[in-house]
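Supplementary notes for students who missed Thursday's class. We covered one full example, reproduced here. Read the sequence, then the structure, then the short commentary at the end.
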Amino acid sequence: MVRGIGSVIPYLVETSGESPALARAETIAGAEALGGAAIATGPEFSDLVGVELPDSVDPGRLADRLALAHRVLRPLARGERIGPRLAAEGRAGGRVAVRRLGSPSGGADAEIRDAGRRLVDAGARVDLERPDRRYWLTRDVDGATWLLAESRDVDRSAVNDRRMPRLPFQRPISLPPRLARAAANLARVRPGDRVLDPFLGTGALLAEAGLLGARLYGIDLDSTMVRGALRNLAHLGVRAETLVAGDAGTVDLGAEPRAFDAIVTDPPYGRSSSTSGEPMYALAHRVVARWARSVVPGGRIVLIVPAGTPPLEDLGRLEGFVPVRVHRSLTREFRVYVRPSRRAP
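Structure (token representation):
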């Protein structure tokens, strides 16, 4: 696990502790979108997810994709091999910081002080505020210490800046950007992909897909929501290809048929939603099943529904679902469907 295998390099992603199952699923999906995959980490780590990336992919690209994570880390050494590796790292010089994973602002323990001394003795200078390189120590469940190098941290402040109170068009209920970004990652959105949200709302899901480079298409029954979503997308520097107002079960997006790479959507539900009295399940099935036929083979549909919602037919193979507890009486499921391959004529 410390060495790359072939043309891939292993990394550990420190997740944020929010919605742990969704954070893990987002990390793996984000790596897969970059051509990587999940890997077994050997001894289990707390809040760390193992992935591998092609050696041609900058790990910073993974950090830039994620919302439910803190940083992407490269394993360097374990146990007695840590001392020689620290000496080698220290010989590179420059400013360095070494901390304990899980308590980045806590006081230095004996292992941290020893690691810092080894780095300094080899020629580096400790600078906890503005280091050129960051190193982290952690222990696995067997009690062995690992040395990790930080490849890139996740800009969580940028995600917070996309929260509803900071957008020009606001509604009392909207999917938080960290969950919307996780949904876009579950769909494996890549630059240039065509992504549809047939229940547009305030544009939260399309905003995250657009920030990942997707081409955006959206529908909402309420023209006010369409205009508001356009304002929010523009505020975030994201451009939509087509947003239309109308019933997503019947409205047309243009004269030419379009093949979508993914659908990412959060159907309305509850008394405060605008469904014209149609039950959420019936509405979601009518609309999403219609547009699922326009998704390319192997494309994904990410559907966010209250737990207990019956399975939707005709969407494709259910790849998995992740429950996310909202409050005591509400758990939502992020369901991921994969469209089947078309049979040869």
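Commentary. DSSP finds nine helices and 15 strands in the chain. The chain has two domains: 8-154, 157-338. If anything here is unclear, bring it to office hours.
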